[in-house]
Amino acid sequence: MVGGPDPAVLGRAALEVSPLPGRSGIRARGEISVLTRPSWEQALSELARRHAGVSYVELSDVAFVDVAGVSALAVTAMNLPDGRVVVENPPPQLPRVLEMFWPGLDRIEVAL
Fold first, then answer.
1. Is residue 6 part of a domain?
2. The STAS domain covers which part of the protein (predicted)?
3. Which candidate, 11, 28, 32, 107, has a CA 20 to 30 Å from the CA of 47?
4. pLDDT tens digits for range 64-81
């Protein structure tokens, strides 16, 4: 094979995103990385389209989120017309990255 196998096929990174039942928001499962970023950004775009005051992002089943994935979340929250995004049970790196690059960003509330 020229160039070797496709990294998306070899990599075990996967991301599933579904609506939260009974609340405005999404639940993600898997990893948020370079391989899954298009799906993550699409889910955040849909979240922003449906946003009405408070949107929830449930991440208890996310094993890893890279800096670019946190950036996409922060930019989505900053571009909302009003309200906030409540991020529930994120992986430990998410609040650290938010604090490092977006200290005091009041559009995102992290609920551990």
1. no
2. 13-99
3. 11
4. 999 999 999 999 999 999
